[in-house]
Design a protein that fits this description.
mainly alpha; Atp Synthase Epsilon Chain, Chain: I; 3 helices; ribosomal protein; 0% strand; 73 residues; structural constituent of ribosome
C-alpha cells in the first residue's frame, strides 16, 4: 500500500500536538486545592439524579478530559 504523506507517523504527531503545560512536582497548597476540586467535579452524575429528574439530565455537561481541555492553572 502506498503512503500518502511524506512524514512518518512520529513527526506528524509531534507537529500537531498541543503545547504541553509543565506542572512542578512541588505544588503550592492553593494549586493543589484547585486540582483536587477539579478532580472531584469531573465525574458522571449519580444514577439517583437520573431517576429523580425523569432522565432529563442524562450526563454531566461539564465533564472534562485531562488531555483535551486544560484547567488554566
Amino acid at each position: 500500500m502506498r503512503k500518502l504523506s511524506n512524514f512518518n507517523d512520529n513527526t506528524f504527531d509531534i507537529r500537531h500536538r498541543r503545547q504541553a503545560v509543565t506542572m512542578p512536582s512541588h505544588k503550592s497548597f492553593r494549586t493543589k486545592q484547585k486540582l483536587a476540586r477539579a478532580q472531584k467535579q469531573n465525574r458522571p452524575i449519580p444514577q439517583w439524579i437520573r431517576l429523580r429528574t425523569g432522565n432529563t439530565i442524562r450526563y454531566n455537561a461539564k465533564r472534562r478530559h485531562w488531555r483535551k481541555t486544560r484547567l488554566g492553572i
